[in-house]
Amino acid sequence: QAQLVESGGGLVQAGGSLRLSCATSGRTFSSYVMGWFRQAPGKEREFVAAIRWSGSSTSYADSVKGRFTISRDNAKNTVYLQMNSLKPEDTAVYYCAATSGAIMSSTITNYRYWGQGTQVTVSS
Question: Is the pLDDT of residue 53 over 90?
Answer without folding.
Answer: no
